[in-house]
Design brief:
The protein has a four-stranded antiparallel β-sheet with strand order 7-8-2-9. A four-stranded antiparallel β-sheet has the order 3-4-6-5, covered by helices on one side. The longest helix has 33 residues, at 329-361. It folds into three domains: 21-48 and 233-414, Multidrug efflux transporter AcrB transmembrane domain (Multidrug efflux transporter AcrB transmembrane fold); 53-59 and 156-229, Alpha-Beta Plaits (2-Layer Sandwich), CATH 3.30.70; 63-151, no CATH class. Helix 10 (293-323) runs parallel beside helix 12 (367-388). It is built from 13 helices and ten strands. The two termini are 26 Å apart. A hairpin with a 5-residue loop joins strand 7 (174-178) and strand 8. It has helices spanning 21-41, 48-51, 63-74, 108-120, 127-130, 159-167, 200-218, 231-260, 263-287, 293-323, 329-361, 367-388, 391-395; strands at residues 45-46, 53-59, 81-86, 98-104, 135-142, 145-151, 174-178, 184-189, 222-229, 290-291. By secondary structure, it is of the alpha+beta class.
Length: 416
């Protein structure tokens, strides 16, 4: 039984994709030229990975964050009951400023000490950073167990004040912005020139320490992470990223040549990949999304996705070339594209649904990666239909492997 949602696009349609190749070539040429112009004039918004410098993320935890963490600790307790209350609504902005953890049971006192250490004691794990700005009165004994009173920090200072204070440090270009919400900051500091007798790493670390100190002087806040990347390391990352993309394209060229036993197929596939990568870089330049190591991963994934889509179309073209030796090549390519269209559209749509969810719900950290992937799926699907397949006509691929074979005959025996 075939479900309608799966068969929404029949396999016997006859859209004249090859006839539209002239329009597609013009559109692709315009997009590629625009991408090159953007890359030359505006360039890419390189992240800390490639540009070097310091990245600091700071923020204030909310009561919900601590409650979720306490619940994970609570699951590991045996014979201890945990109850959490907060004073949400007492503050002017409705935020909780105090969180009380009450415990009952035979092991309540020891468990309270463990909880207090895990939350505000610093520790060696990420919780030390997540709640480093949370204070407590320590674990206190009660008549029926123990309690911990946690004090949460106030809201972050206004963003304009933070920018003004950081700008007065004399560290050059400093960018401060909200990161996923008003309670989290992301601060970027440009690469610092080492002072006399100071190495490159020490210069960046000095800037990071100065920014952290300034932030903590303004208001209590948690320093969630600090990343310091020197100019030497960032240059190596750029070279390695470009090298990874080039190697992927070369290996794809060799694979398709071997797989389809014809240089026309390999050149057509790689031309489509270069088309996809170049336009994707242009879109990233246009939108201003940060270009970092996850972006390189997204581009390599796009290369794999686009190549997979192209191979499916090419495999059907080769199959039809063996079966219909007298069919005109343009009709044969168009016939093969239409036969694989249902599979191409269904694969792209389901992939875009997953990526759309990642873009909306994945947070700011994954926003650039998911956007790059979404665009890559769209342009990869387009190129497998309008670039990779029709370009075989320009390259002169022929049935039977003979470059000079005559395949222009038509007739009833040439039709599927």
């Amino acid at each position: 039984m075939a479900f309608g949602v799966i068969r929404f696009m029949p396999s016997d349609h006859g859209y004249p994709f090859v006839r539209w190749r002239g329009i597609a070539y013009v559109l692709s040429s315009v997009m590629m030229a625009g991408a090159l112009l953007l890359l030359v004039t505006a360039g890419l918004n390189f992240g800390i990975d490639f540009r070097g410098g310091t990245l600091i993320q700071a923020g204030n935890p909310q009561a919900e964050d601590i409650q979720a963490f306490v619940q994970t600790l609570d699951e590991e307790l045996d014979g201890v009951e945990v109850e959490i209350t907060d004073n949400a609504g007492d503050a002017e902005d409705g935020r909780a400023t105090e969180l009380v953890i009450a415990m009952t049971g035979a092991n309540a006192a020891a468990s309270a000490e463990s909880f207090n250490t895990a939350i505000v004691g610093g520790g060696e794990d990420v919780t030390g950073a997540r709640f480093s700005c949370v204070t407590s009165d320590g674990a206190e004994s009660t008549d029926d167990g123990a309690r911990i009173a946690l004090h949460l920090p106030p809201p972050l200072p206004p963003l304009d004040d933070i920018r003004a204070n950081l700008g007065a440090l004399g560290l050059g270009n400093i960018q401060a912005q909200e990161f996923g919400g008003p309670d989290t900051l992301l601060i970027r500091v440009e690469t610092q020139d080492p002072a006399e007798g100071e190495d490159e790493g020490d210069a960046q670390q000095r800037a990071a320490d100065l920014v952290r100190t300034t932030l903590l002087e303004m208001a209590p806040m948690c320093i969630l992470r600090t990343e310091v990347v020197g100019a030497t390391v960032s240059g190596e990352l750029i070279r390695n990223g470009v090298l990874a993309i080039v190697i992927a394209l070369v290996l794809m060229l060799g694979y398709i040549w071997f797989r389809f036993d014809g240089w026309q197929f390999s050149v057509g596939a790689v031309a489509a990949l270069v088309h996809d990568v170049l336009i994707t870089l242009g879109v990233l330049s246009l939108t201003g999304f940060e270009f970092n190591l996850p972006s390189i991963a997204a581009i390599l994934t796009i290369i794999g996705y686009s190549m997979n889509d192209t191979v499916v179309v090419y495999d059907r073209i080769r199959e039809k070339m063996r079966k219909y030796k007298k069919m005109p090549m343009d009709e044969l390519i168009n016939f093969a594209i239409n036969k694989t269209l249902s599979r191409t559209i269904m694969t792209s749509v389901t992939t875009l649904i997953a990526l759309g969810s990642l873009f909306v719900l994945g947070g700011e950290v994954l926003r650039g990666f998911s956007f790059t992937m979404i665009w890559g799926v769209v342009i990869g699907t387009y190129s497998s239909i309008f670039v990779a397949a029709p370009v075989l006509l320009i390259l002169g691929v022929r049935q039977g492997g003979g470059a000079g074979a005559n395949v222009s005959q038509s007739g009833a025996d040439a039709r599927p």
